[in-house]
Amino acid sequence: MPTVITPNTGIELFYEDHGDPSNEVILLVMGLGAQLTLWPDALVETLVGEGFRVIRYDNRDIGLSQKMEGARAPGLAVQVLRKKIGWPARVPYTLKDMADDGIGLLDALGIDRAHVVGASMGGMIVQLMAVHHAERLLSMTSIMSTTGSGKLPQAEKHAMDALTAPLKSLDEESLVAHGLNVAKNIGSPGFPFDPQAQREKVLRNVRRSVYPAGMPRQLAAIIDDGDRTSRLADVRVPTLVLHGEDDPLVKLAGGEATAAAIPGARLVTIPGWGHDIPDALIGQVAGEIVSHARDNAGTHAEAQTA
Question: What is the pLDDT of residue 31?
Fold first, then answer.
């Protein structure tokens, strides 16, 4: 089982390493309550086929990585209220801690610099990598993510309700039904939803790992981090922002705000795309990531900073 203990944060992370070790690295960072397997295998294979070494990993508190057993997240309503009035709430860990985890994984694998790609909460994490560890990044791609500004449009009710619905049971069928409901409510309205194919994906993830206790702690970290707009203004890492025009969970305005906050960022939006990576979009999403990475390859990026 490929795991490492990050030298900076001391967290055990499970990871997968694909492609030629001598190639430039693309580090994939997944979102809230999501295992590394939500990065489609076909996307990974496409990036490897384009000449990159691709590493994806489970964030702390999810999948096969270390669980923060016994840590308690503040109640959601209480935390939101305290945030609004400027009072801190004690959280088990922060989004910066999670960004440090990813950098620690690079350290453990002996990787000096990488292209980082994050989806949803993973987009927030790679934004913080760019804020705090810019020297380690060749480029950044933030997908279906946001700045965290409270002024932005909120998620559609059906999407948030599906994502945060309490589990009725931990038996396999109940877990699969929950996962299917989430996928249906946050997915891409412009692309066909195949219930059988989605069921197989959800079932594989359920059989890989189930750990509902981690999600409230990850959500607490998101709320605690707040608005990143002013921090992102200082980012000089070459940035691509990808966002669906029909994302019901993180609205398009979140991606637009991210691109506006980061000097020189390029925004690409896709009609019909929601809060997932449907098979029909894998080629386009991979193409954008590859193009951005090649435009900011190691030799080119080093020349810019020389």
Answer: 97
Tens-place pLDDT, residues 198-249: 999 999 999 999 999 999 999 999 999 999 999 999 999 999 999 999 999 9
Of 104, 105, 12, the C-alpha closest to 66 is 12
Question: How deeply is 248 buried, as exposed, middle or buried, from its count of CB atoms within 10 A (0-12, 13-18, 19+)?
Answer: buried
User: CA separation (Å) from 6 to 65, 66, 181, 296, 303?
Assistant: 11, 11, 35, 27, 30
Burial of residue 274 (CB within 10 Å: 0-12, 13-18, 19+) is buried
Please state, in angstroms and rounded to a whole number, the distance separating the CA atoms of residues 28 and 252: 21
Mean pLDDT of 145-160: 96
**Sequence-ordered list of residues with C-beta below 8 angstroms from that of 129, at least 6 positions apart, any chain:** 99, 102, 103, 116, 136, 137, 140
- Determine contact, residues 149/256, Cβ cutoff 8 Å: no
pLDDT in tens, 54-72: 999 999 999 999 999 988 8
SS3 175: helix
Could you give the CA distance from residue 168 to residue 206 in angstroms, rounded to a whole number? 15
Q: Which domains are delineated in the chain?
A: 3-305 (3.40.50.1820)
The pLDDT assigned to 176 comes to: 96
Q: What is the pTM of this model?
A: 0.94
Give me the pLDDT at residue 298, please: 79
DSSP 8-class letter at 174: H
Token couple for 105: 């994984």
Residue in the block written with tokens 């309490």? 166
Partners of 119 in beta bridges: 143
